[in-house]
Amino acid sequence: MQDPVSILKPTSTVKVRLGDKLGHALQLMVDSEHGAILVVDHNDKLIGILTERDYLLKVFGVIENYMRLPVEDYMTPSPETLQPTDTVAYALHKMDLGGYRHLPIVEEGRPIGVISVRNVLRYITRLCKEPF
């Protein structure tokens, strides 16, 4: 568990920009089969995250005509992040404390990947298969 999070094979980032519409973000999420979309500013700096959970709890069945609304109104701003050198144990601790299923990995404020609970579970499964 002291391996860096890079061993988890983070997924590539799927990003939208400030002002992009929820409909566009949702289509990207579905097409890419990612559970989280990162929201970046004009300098590609991470400013928010929009997850499946955000859609389910804040948008679907709550807001009408949501497809044309801006992502920044429904994203989670200033999400918790990881550095590529952070350990898997640290990432798991952050996920547990915050109840997060996805954590962006950033370098100099710019997203370079995302890890999810699924990445961590695959890692743990591999560890359990290794002889002691």
UniProtKB/TrEMBL annotation:
SUPFAM superfamilies: CBS-domain pair. This is CBS domain-containing protein. PANTHER family: CBS DOMAIN-CONTAINING PROTEIN CBSX2, CHLOROPLASTIC (PTHR48108), CBS DOMAIN-CONTAINING PROTEIN DDB_G0289609 (PTHR48108:SF26). Residues 8-71, 75-130 form the CBS domain. It holds the Pfam family CBS. Keywords: CBS domain, Repeat. It comes from the Bacteria. InterPro entries: CBS_dom, CBS_dom_sf, CBS_domain-containing. PROSITE patterns: CBS.
